[in-house]
Amino acid sequence: MTTIRENDFVQSIADALQFISYYHPSDYIQSLAAAYEAEESPAARDAMAQILYNSRMCAEGHRPICQDTGMVVVFLKIGMEVRWETQSGIQAMVDEGVRRAYGHPDNVLRASMVTPPIGARKNTGDNTPAIVHMELVPGDKVEVKLAAKGGGSENKSKFTILNPSDSLVDWVLKTVPTMGAGWCPPGMLGIGIGGSAEKAMLMAKEALMETIDIHELKARGPSDPIEELRLELYEKVNALGIGAQGLGGLTTVLDVKIHSYPTHAASLPVALIPNCAATRHLEFTLDGSGPVTLDPPSLEDWPAIVWEADSSAKRVNLDSVTGEDIATWQPGDRILLSGKLLTGRDAAHQRIIDLLNRGEPLPDGVDLTNRFIYYVGPVDPVRDEVVGPAGPTTSTRMDKFTEQMLSQTGLIGMVGKAERGPAAIEAIKRHGAVYLMAVGGAAYLVAKAIKGSRLVAFEDLGMEAIREFEVEDMPVTVAVDSRGDSVHQSGPAKWRSKIGLIPVEVVA
Questions:
Q1: Is the pLDDT of residue 204 over 80?
Q2: Where is the Fe-S hydro-lyase tartrate dehydratase beta-type catalytic domain (predicted)?
Q3: What residues contact 29, with CB distance under 8 A and at least 6 apart?
């Protein structure tokens, strides 16, 4: 009989969440570094350089890899000989660990959980509750797998029930392009096959916590049908040409993980869940001897990559830029932004639209005439920081607001991550605006370009409030120009054609 004390369990959860907020798993860094060396697309290569440089900065500075510090997901295998020294339930203890981790004064993490899920959607303030899955197993130990799952990748989760005779590979190849780039590739794909609907989704999620080993698998060769499927999907998904951040390139996924389970004779449930470039997960075992001890990785695990802005990048003064200026920009142009930049994402956009619909003025300081808005929900600052990690959020969530924002506020530019949908692109073209893309997964690097920050409006929205940033040489790429040309359409198409493995009709 092993006794697990409440504080040992709680502190282990807290320490692990802090650890994964700023340390990438070494297997991810090694795999991404290899992909960077092999990449032929300049845009994708630059994006990977930013991610790798950002990762090292976070490891050194103990600050979050991404501003979205994730929804906590925990898988527990609890030995049936374990005795708990506590008056609390498992969920309550996990939540206390989350609370400690996300409120740590030296590395405050962003609280993203809201309740209820419909209606008020008020931020819980401490990132609780966690999503907890438990299994009773033989033994006298507690095995813990945990992850901090970002919304950008979680929102791209897919599920279907195929006919038993259908091609799973064809479904994946048709589905992955519909996910866009909001999940911040290059990352991993977790796939669950079989069981029931909920079992398939759980298997896909847990599969993402495994070590990247696709290159070892390629070297030794597959030993069963699942390994054969992993290799086939790895090659064919990368041949889609989506590339880092959806810009087009050779590497979209670093590994494909598959879990399977027996299923009904009439069914083939399939779940697909991507993991983003932040890739935050960890596993450990508690045996009653105390809280877990986590050994920091060596900085030698990181490649000696120092990202610097492209010498051909255009420097743009946000305080004086005009519609005539942005009309000269081309998709793929590298831009360095300086000046004042307003922020705002889902909740702030909804409030602005509500005010416009009622004919009411916007709050003081929210004058969007000839301005740019940055889709971001930053981490709170610590110590001498102006702002915490402040990378972009997925821009497609703002698509439904774009036409009204451009037509009624004087806005001329937007900054976010990933692609824009057809309606937003049409609105950008109609109004001669522009959409710029910052790299998702490089939040600490972006924050270093922010020299000032002040709250402007909607303070009650927390991380979703409107702020005004003073930025200096903030790196972005023209993703949709004023003529409606999108690099997220042209880039992958170019590289898919160049790789030449996937017929056009497969992804049409």
A1: yes
A2: 288-490
A3: 52, 55, 301, 302, 303
The SS3 call for residue 332 is coil
Residue pointed to by tokens 């020299």:
451
* pLDDT mean over 20-49: 96
| Domain 151-277 indexed as CATH 3.30.1330 | yes
Q: Please provide the DSSP assignment of 169-231 as one string.
A: HHHHHHHGGGGTTTT-SSEEEEEEEEE-HHHHHHHHHHHTTSPP-HHHHHHH---SHHHHHHH
pLDDT, tens digit, for every residue of 365-412? Answer: 999 999 999 999 999 999 899 999 999 999 999 999 999 999 999 999
Dihedrals φ, ψ of 38, to 5°?
-90, -15
pLDDT surpasses 60 at 151: yes
Residue spans in the chain of domains classed CATH 3.20.130.10: 314-492
Q: Find the radius of gyration of the CA atoms of the chain.
A: 23
Q: What H or E segment, with its residue span, contains residue 258?
A: strand 253-263
CATH class, range 314-492: alpha beta
- Quote the pLDDT of residue 507: 59
Distance CA 137, CA 80 (A): 6
Q: Considering the entire predicted model, what is its pTM?
A: 0.94
C-alpha to C-alpha distance for 479 and 477, rounded to whole angstroms = 6
CATH 3.30.1330 placement within the chain: 151-277
